[in-house]
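Backbone-to-sequence.
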């Protein structure tokens, strides 16, 4: 507008006006490039910091007793915690406080609790994600420090709050690229978790490409894929956080029955606020401020003052 007005008033000729416009566009384009470069630079700095954090982690020991040496393929793993405590390196207090707990092989245990009660941390410890705890952690009576950690993890199916879809096919998202998992078994799990219709309706079936975080599929489908990923490796121990998230009642009931089916050769320990799943488990643990304040059957948990505070009644 200003340039046009100056040309009308003969204070600026056409050549000067065009040159000014070109200069302005050049400056704007350069600023845009600078902004993009700044974002890229920030990403590089952030990535470098994360790589540094990984590089600074202490090396994990190798060797030890492999799970196959003391646990048959179809034998569920028992878990025992002895006076176990955990405190974050930068924390001021313990998030897990001297917990002692026995989970028998083949048991189905639901863990519920108040916010910041230590549920997720407890799952991370049992699934051997967090190792810097105090106290004892045993699998089938053997201390964790005597076991081959890689072998132990191979026998644990986990679904944590950090799990997500990555850019790959449906099949790769379920098997994590493990070629030892037979396709018929994958198809069986797909049907068990209720993914078969989605796979059939997808343009390329199991080869259908998924985008990061599953942004091109419903959240309920994301949950089913993550559940399938946790169980497809035939684990002896399942450690899960909210395996029924974003599902409708029919799907919740189906997957809850599948996970708690006593014919499945696994032990199940799951964080949930869904009474549908908890009611099918053998035991319910209620946590508060890093401690287990209740351990018993679902029916007894219903009678506690904590029940309505830790379960989502609107899910029923």
């Amino acid at each position: 507008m200003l340039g046009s007005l100056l040309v009308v008033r003969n204070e600026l000729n056409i050549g000067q006006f065009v040159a000014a416009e070109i200069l302005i566009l050049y400056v704007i384009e350069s600023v845009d490039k600078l902004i993009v470069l700044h974002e890229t630079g920030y990403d590089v700095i952030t990535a470098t910091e994360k790589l540094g954090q990984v590089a600074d982690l202490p090396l994990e020991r190798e060797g030890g007793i492999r799970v196959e040496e003391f646990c048959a393929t179809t034998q569920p793993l028992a878990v025992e915690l002895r006076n176990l405590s955990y405190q974050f390196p930068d924390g001021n207090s313990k998030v897990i406080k001297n917990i002692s707990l026995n989970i028998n092989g083949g048991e189905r245990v639901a863990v519920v609790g108040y916010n910041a009660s230590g549920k997720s941390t407890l799952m991370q410890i049992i699934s051997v994600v967090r190792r810097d705890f105090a106290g004892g952690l045993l699998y089938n009576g053997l201390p964790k420090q005597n076991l081959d950690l890689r072998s132990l993890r191979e026998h644990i199916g986990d679904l944590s709050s950090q799990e997500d879809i990555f850019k790959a096919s449906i099949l790769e998202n379920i098997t994590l690229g493990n070629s030892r998992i037979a396709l018929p078994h994958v198809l069986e799990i797909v049907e068990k978790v209720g993914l078969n219709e989605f796979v059939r309706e997808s343009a390329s079936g199991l080869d259908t490409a998924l985008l990061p975080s599953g942004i091109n599929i419903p959240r309920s489908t994301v949950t089913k894929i993550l559940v399938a990923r946790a169980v497809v490796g035939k684990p002896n121990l399942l450690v899960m956080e909210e395996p029924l998230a974003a599902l409708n009642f029919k799907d919740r009931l189906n997957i809850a029955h599948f996970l708690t089916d006593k014919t499945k050769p696994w032990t199940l320990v799951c964080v949930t606020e869904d009474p549908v799943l908890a009611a099918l488990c053998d035991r319910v643990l209620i946590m508060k401020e890093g401690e287990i304040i209740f351990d018993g059957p679902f029916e007894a948990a219903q009678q506690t003052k904590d029940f309505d505070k830790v379960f989502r009644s609107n899910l029923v």
